[in-house]
Amino acid sequence: MEKLKRIVAPTDMSELSRVGVRHALEMAKSSGADVIVHHVIPFEEAAPYFYATGDESSSPVEYRPLPEVVEECKRHLAKFLRENFGDLIREVTVRQEVELGLPYKRIVERALEEGADMIVISTHGRTGLLRMLIGSVAERVVRLAHCPVLVVRPAKEAIEAKRAAA
After folding, report:
1. How much is the pTM?
2. pLDDT tens figures, 115-132
3. How would you label 60-79 residue by residue, b for 16+ Cβ within 10 Å and e otherwise?
4. What is the pLDDT of residues 3-32, one digit of tens each?
5. CATH of the structural domain 6-165, one choice from 3.60.10.10, 3.30.300.30, 3.40.50.620, 1.10.287.80
6. How far apart are the C-alpha atoms of 28 and 4, rounded to whole Å?
7. I need a surface site. Which of 41, 51, 56, 144 has the fewest CB within 10 A?
């Protein structure tokens, strides 16, 4: 296996996605690779100028201009990295990318555009009917990526805690 030079680490900035980002950063630290931490804002082409935020069940939906949403996500991603990986981001070259699109598609395209040697992605561990209904970004990335994909599953305790909270 050739030495890793560039790793794409997708994140939805959830608690469970931290596992994949940490793996990517630790691999980069030991191999000297750069890491592109990549967040994709789910986006339907039917709404080209405004993005709905909020949850209809608990709060009113707010429509905001897309550039404003992207900038807010960039700030949120920077905070996510500082708060969760401050120990590693000082030792690794990290670039942050936020963009709009279908998450699995943009992750695969970003890895190709960047000439990534690997994608390291967390899976939420969904199975059965839930996975069938909402799909799996990680599974689609594995099927479509041009480079190796390391799928990191969070610890069983984290999955159980997440299910209990839902």
Report:
1. 0.81
2. 999 999 998 665 544 444
3. eeeeeeeeebbeebeeebee
4. 899 999 999 998 889 999 999 999 999 999
5. 3.40.50.620
6. 8
7. 56
